[in-house]
Design a protein that fits this description.
This is Spore cortex protein YabQ (Spore_YabQ). The protein is an all-alpha fold. Helices cover 86% and strands 0% of the residues. It contains four helices and no strands. The protein is elongated, with a radius of gyration of 33 Å.
């Protein structure tokens, strides 16, 4: 293997180490130590391993050497020591400039759609209330009689079998 090819594969493995550390950092930051965050992290590790292998496969036909593991560890340590803050800053910048405006627009569209759909629904409910006005007094009487009947039935039933009886 040519030295330049080995250097390329070494740099590719350092890059996968940096990207792996960044991905896990993002998952841990977003997960916040919750069970869901832990589950997502457990699902992410095999995917990151497959990603590293696919890079290794593209660079060197999948031949693994010991210095690949060391190169990935160097990538993780490089991320933790030097690239941690710039990645976090870039993430906050992307969130502020891209994600929040998109979420704001989606929320605005949702509110507009709910308002537009709500107008006919409110109109139908208003008309239904108007049509049901003549039935209010009979319904109250029926509910009152049903309430009285249920109280009478409950008085005639024995005490709840789930309650503890005193001996």
């Amino acid at each position: 293997m040519i030295v330049s090819h080995q250097l390329l594969s070494l740099l590719a493995m350092v890059g996968t180490g940096i990207l792996t550390a960044a991905a896990i950092d993002i998952i841990r930051t977003a997960g916040g130590g919750t069970r869901a965050g832990t589950a997502i992290e457990l699902m992410a590790w095999p995917l990151l391993g497959l990603f590293a292998f696919s890079v290794l496969f593209a660079v060197r036909s999948g031949e693994w050497r010991l210095y690949d593991l060391l190169a990935q560890l160097v990538g993780v340590l490089l991320y933790e020591s030097a690239l941690h803050r710039p990645f976090r800053f870039a993430g906050r910048l992307i969130a502020a400039l891209v994600i929040r405006p998109i979420l704001f627009l989606l929320g605005l569209l949702w509110k507009i759609a709910a308002f537009i759909v709500g107008i006919p629904v409110r109109l139908i409910l208003f008309l239904a209330r108007l049509l049901l006005i003549p039935f209010r007094k009979p319904m109250r009487a029926i509910r009152r009689k049903a309430g009285n009947l249920s109280r009478k039935v409950r008085r005639k039933l024995p005490a709840s079998p789930l309650k503890k009886r005193s001996a």
